[in-house]
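Exam prep: given the inputs below (a chain plus S-adenosylmethionine), describe the expected output before reading on.
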Amino acid sequence: MLDTARWTVLAPLLQAATAGPDLLDATIRGLTPQAVAAEVVAETGEHDVRLDLVFDGVTTSHLRTDSDVVVTLGLADAVRGLYAGRPWSSLSVRTPDPEMDERGIAGWFADRKGVPQAVQGLLSALRPQRRDLGELAVELGTDKWGDLHWYTQHYERHFARLRTEPVRLLEIGIGGYDDPDRGGGSLRMWERFFPRGLVVGLDIAHKNVRGPRITTVRGDQSDAEFLDRLGRELGPFDIVIDDGSHLNDHVRTSFHALFPHVRSGGLYVVGPADRVLAFLGRAPGGHGRHVDRPAQVLCGWTEPRGDR
Ligand SMILES: C[S@@+](CC[C@H](N)C(=O)[O-])C[C@H]1O[C@@H](n2cnc3c(N)ncnc32)[C@H](O)[C@@H]1O
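Solution:
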């Protein structure tokens, strides 16, 4: 039912990113350096620079392979930097050596114009800085912060302990409703917030949202059988967020079908908060005061059972 082929590479790679060098090397060998390099390149995006990745003495070239600006990095180092934010020990940068001609030093610098920006652009993509969730929400266009809701502060607080873990997150409701090219802001936000996270978005409408660690699924959150299958194929999840139809019946059905697929110690989040209060059988305390509502009402916690 679901296209999870890429997860067979990503899931073990994200697990091994914080492991010792021997285990990480063995994981890369098992997955094949080509498949791992493809994941690294998928994360970096386009850059006007050549990226050489080295593993077991073999170098493969990526991005702009005809460029004479070359960033060279060990593949394991790249994986550690990308998913675990670790500093590199194998980085080298080769840039063209401009001639010192009649233009003198000014000409020498002119020939290097754009090189530092190009190199730094790639390096920043290879080791993304940790950003605040509110900042990511505004940049990536989810309504979870600003305009409609002021939720990210609560998410940030509850998700902090999982931030560097290889989490699996499912969000019901990708956004954009019937427009296949709209929505996905929150999925991109979660992908960036959890550097080792695998993110699944579920929507009743077809969606064209793509991302290196994002998978989208089309389905109805009121279909319990479908949700159970989803949980068995892609779970267990560390986090489930219900931001779909917001209809109480749907919220209840989804909760009963998916909660068994939430890992011990995980989180099940239902939003907006007034729906949660209704869902829990309490009267909402008024509208338009989301920022004041305690975050706890957004979250259903599972008790850790010590199996993680
Ligand atoms: C509020 S938007 C989600 C916003 C998004 N999570 C964000 O933060 O950017 C709600 C989405 O839920 C989807 N939806 C509505 N009913 C649904 C259902 N029964 N099952 C799954 N998705 C549904 C809609 O198509 C819409 O794209």
